[in-house]
Amino acid sequence: MQRRVFAFISLLAAMLVLSACTGGGATTGTTSSPAPAASGSNGVQQVTVTVGNSMSFEPTSITVGTGQPVQLTLRNTGLMPHDFSLSDGVAQPVHIAASGGQTTSDTFTIDYPGTYAFDCSMPGHASAGMRGTISAQ
User: Fold this and answer.
1) In a domain, 12, yes or no
2) I want to staple 48 with a disulfide (CB 3.0 to 4.6 A). Which of 41, 73, 110, 114 is the partner?
3) pLDDT, tens digit, for every residue of 51-87?
C-alpha cells in the first residue's frame, strides 16, 4: 500500500515538473512567444524567421542579446516575395529579402536594450499583418 502511494506521489510530482517545463498545455491562436536566439560557437546569435502565403512572420516576437551580432535567416516557404525590415535599434537599416521558396540571411547588431518593430516592406504586407517585434536585452 505504501509503495502504491509513493509511486502515485512520484508520478504526480513528475507530471507537475514536466508541465512546468513545457508550459502546461496546448495553445491556440497565432500568438507566438518570443523566440530566443541560439548562440553559435563564434558568439553570433542564430535566428530563423519563416514567412509564407499567410502574410505573417513566425515567430512574431524575437529576443536577442544587446551588443551581440544576430544572424537572421529569412525562410520564405510561400510563393510571393517577402522581406524583414528593421530600422530602429540598429546603426544601419536591416533589409533581408527572400523571393518565394528562397532562404536568405544577413547579420546585424542591436546596440541598445529595447523592443523594436520589424515588418515586411512589400506594398500592403505590413497592413495585412506582417509585423513583429525584436527585443534586445
Assistant:
1) no
2) 73
3) 999 999 999 999 999 999 999 999 999 999 999 999 9
61 in Cβ contact with 32 (< 8 Å): yes
- H-assigned helices in the chain: 2-22
Longest C-alpha distance within the chain, in Å?
69
The grid coordinates of residue 97 equal 529579402
Q: Global pTM? A: 0.71
Please give the residue range of the domain that contains residue 71.
33-136
Cell, residue 123: 506594398
Between CA 98 and CA 127 the distance in angstroms is: 19
Neighbours of 28 (CB within 10 A): 5
Strand partners, 112: none
Whether residue 127 lies inside any domain: the answer is yes
Q: What is the mean pLDDT of the chain?
A: 80
Does a structural domain hold residue 9?
no
In the structure grid, which three cell numbers stand for residue 132, read together?
513583429
Establish if 98 belongs to a structural domain: yes
